[in-house]
Each structure stands twice: as C-alpha cells, then as structure tokens.
Amino acid sequence: MARREGITTLCYLERGDEYLMLHRISKKNDINKDKWIGVGGHLEDDESPEECIKREIYEETGYDIPLEDLEFRAIITFVSQKGDYELMCLFTAKAPDTEPKDCDEGKLEWVKRENIYDLNLWEGDKIFLRKLSESRDFFSLKLAYDKKDNLIEAVLNGKNILDCQ
Known about the structure:
By secondary structure, the protein is an alpha+beta fold. Helix content is 15%, strand content 41%. The protein has helices at 49-61, 123-134; strands at residues 3-15, 18-23, 36-37, 39-44, 71-80, 85-94, 107-112, 139-145, 151-156, 159-160.
C-alpha cells in the first residue's frame, strides 16, 4: 500500500479525565521528535480518514475501536515556511479499560487533561486541544509555522486567533 503524503489522521483517546499521549522518542528523523501527540498517521491509498485512524489506533495501541465510536472533530491544515503541507483529520474516541500495548514510535502514557499543557507540545496543538475541551462542535483550524517551527498564524473557522491567545 502506498501512503498518501500530506493527508494524516490523529486521535486523542479518552479515559475519564485523561488522554492517551504518545511521547515521540523512538523514530529517527521524526518531525515530532520529543513532542507529545495523540496517535495516528498517514492515509493509505484505499483508506478513508476513519479507516486510517482505526488502523493507526490498532497498530500503535492494540485497541480495536469500532468505526462508529470515532468522533470526527476537526480538520487541521498545517503549512510551514519549510515547504511542508499537511491536512489532518482530528478524532477523539473513548478508550477501553485495558492498558495499551507498547508502541514502537514512542512511549504511551495516560495524562490528565489539566496536565497536558505541561508537556512538550507543538504550539498549534495547544490551540486544538483547548478547542476539543471547550466544545463538541466540528471546527477547521489552519496553523502556519516558520522555518524554525515557531507558530506564526492560527486561523480558526476563518478567523485569525493568534493575536487573541
């Protein structure tokens, strides 16, 4: 199967007041090296976003989440002055009560939502994590980064919000 470069999925698995976070410490040449993120990855040629995130959740955690239990919460557009472009489908889902399997992409850890912002997160991730906790409404977010990975633009549902942070 070929991967669809530029189209990705990400899911924050929820259990009570915690998210399952992946500390990306295992892969070399990882754009997310040392960052904490949800689980997910690139779409393969024959997949919908839902099929992709279901597969990625299973590969990275061992959890088999039914398609109907996935909540499609947002579309996130990432652009960078480095020339990178990514369109990410953002999901949440309830996690089973069992512990996840070991992940070859990093360390999986349950983190209380109130402590999420203490982790090494991308600046833009902080924006969509806040939005996920504030509302169940679907949203669109554009995040632009400079060549040094500093967030330079954030547009939520068509409105620039970076000045309001």
